[in-house]
Design a protein that fits this description.
four-stranded mixed beta sheet; six-stranded mixed beta sheet; single chain; 24% strand; 7 helices; alpha+beta
Length: 311
């Protein structure tokens, strides 16, 4: 099928993969095989070399670009690398529009591997440079295949400059890589909000508050005369008393008489309360006072007759 004007080449062919003619090595590039009649037509047009073509699948509206390796295919048929047929959603025997075109030399391309294992290769840029030598051009939106170590790596062409389709034959082209499709960013540590900070501080303070404090000199004391001293209250228990109780105790102490310890001399103490004051006595204090009185009765100083120095 012929089409287009007389100054350009445009033909419609049925397409098949190159493996149908035992040329699977052509899968490593973007070269196609055309019939001999296409060479005769191209030679008469005096087109530029290298020969580049635009491939169009009008049924799905997809286009790509390629070069040509040889003109040995049967008439009405072209053979393509299978990865190119996948890019253009072509099945075996589908019609493909082929038109000659001239492309500018590329200066920049951006590629994106499908998987991270391509970047795990010792030198992925060197492998890619070797593979691209088998390519004539690149088109934005295409997915090329890079074979290495008995494995196929698929790479998307995200961007090309200065045009969406560029020639990469005998040109210095800058290559940039985007993160692979299966790449996942590492999770960032969560920022501590004021509520979480307070909860953590409370968790840290709880163990310390549960540890009992060491209080020295607690317990019951023993006196030299064999009697036991009542257990004294620790400072912590005294601090835990309520303010109202402290005030009541202060009022009692201000009204009651000062207690005298046994075995100790006290001079000038007023031990008798006034009759007008209402004294509230504690049974425990009464017992302690009775015990002190019995002790005082046993031991008395300065007893006996009085003598005057004057005779």
């Amino acid at each position: 099928m012929n089409g287009g004007d007389a100054s350009s080449f445009e033909q419609c062919y049925r397409c098949y993969p190159v493996m149908f003619i035992d040329k699977a090595h052509l899968e490593k590039g973007d070269k196609i095989i055309m019939p001999p009649s296409a060479l005769d037509r191209l030679a008469s047009l005096h087109i530029e070399y290298p020969m580049l073509f635009r491939l169009s699948n009008d049924s799905v509206g997809k286009t790509s670009h390629c070069g040509v390796l040889e003109f040995t295919a049967d008439e009405g048929i072209v053979y393509l690398p299978y990865w190119m047929m996948l890019n253009m959603s072509l099945q075996e025997g589908d019609f493909l529009q082929v038109k000659n075109i001239s492309l500018v030399k590329g200066t920049y391309i951006k590629l994106q591997p499908h998987t991270q294992d391509f970047l795990d290769i010792s030198n992925p840029k060197a492998i890619l440079e070797t593979t691209l030598r088998s390519y004539s051009c690149l088109t934005t939106g295409d997915t090329i295949m890079v074979p290495y170590n008995n494995k196929q790596y698929f790479i998307n062409v995200l961007e090309a400059k200065p045009s969406s389709a560029v020639s990469i034959i005998e040109t210095d082209c800058e290559v940039d890589f985007a993160p692979p499709l299966d790449y996942k960013e590492p999770e960032k540590p969560q920022k501590l909000t004021p509520s979480t900070k307070r909860s953590r501080e409370v968790e840290e303070e709880e163990p310390t508050s549960k540890v009992p404090k060491f209080t020295p000199f607690t317990g019951s004391g023993k006196r030299l005369d064999g009697k036991t001293q009542p257990q004294t209250e620790s400072e912590d228990t005294k601090q835990q008393e309520k303010p109202t109780e402290n005030r009541k105790d202060d009022e009692k102490l201000s009204v009651t008489t000062p207690r005298q310890r046994s075995g100790k001399l006290v001079f000038g103490s007023n031990s008798k309360p006034t009759a007008k004051e209402n004294v509230k006595l504690d049974p425990k204090n009464i017992e302690q006072e009775s015990s002190t009185k019995s002790d005082e009765a046993k031991f008395q100083v300065f007893t006996g007759k009085k003598y005057s120095l004057q005779g």
